[in-house]
């Protein structure tokens, strides 16, 4: 799995369903093999139920606190990469798209760098040994 969108949650029943749907749509629209993981941190409302209904994987973290929920989520995430977001729709998932291609760009750069290095080495060897073209 490529990406986990991790959302810690505490009593967010009014916003969580829409937020999870946005995250699920983002994964679907960009053909990303990923999951939306909601970590319920002791909600007393219907947050977990609504997140599950919207398409998220929901786990409960017994240790209270935002940091504990994030740590718990990181341990249980299946994605190669993890993006964290809040459940109040304060983040636009459309703005994440450029970050997803960082690894691909780095691989392309490494490939180009390797190719350039090979070409430079060939030129240097040709000139050093005066190999005609």
Topology:
Blueprint: E1 3-9, H1 16-29, E2 34-40, H2 47-54, E3 57-60, H3 66-76, E4 81-84, H4 97-100, H5 102-128
Parallel strand pairs: 1-2, 1-4, 2-3
| Chain-averaged pLDDT | 81
- Determine the fraction of residues in helical runs and give it as a percent range: 40-55%
Report on the biggest sheet: 4 strands, parallel
Kindly report the spatial arrangement of strands forming the biggest sheet.
3-2-1-4
Q: Roughly how many Å apart are the termini?
A: 48 Å
**What class would the helix/strand composition place it in?**
alpha/beta
Total strands: the figure is 4
Structural commentary:
Mean pLDDT is 81; it is low at 115-121 and 123-129. 48% of the residues lie in helices and 17% in strands. It is α/β, with parallel strands linked by helices. The radius of gyration is 22 Å and the shape is globular. The longest helix has 27 residues, at 102-128. It has helices at residues 16-29, 47-54, 66-76, 97-100, 102-128; strands at residues 3-9, 34-40, 57-60, 81-84. β1 (3-9), α1 (16-29) and β2 (34-40) form a beta-alpha-beta unit. A four-stranded parallel sheet has the order 3-2-1-4, with helices on both faces. α1 (16-29) runs parallel beside α2. It contains five helices and four strands.
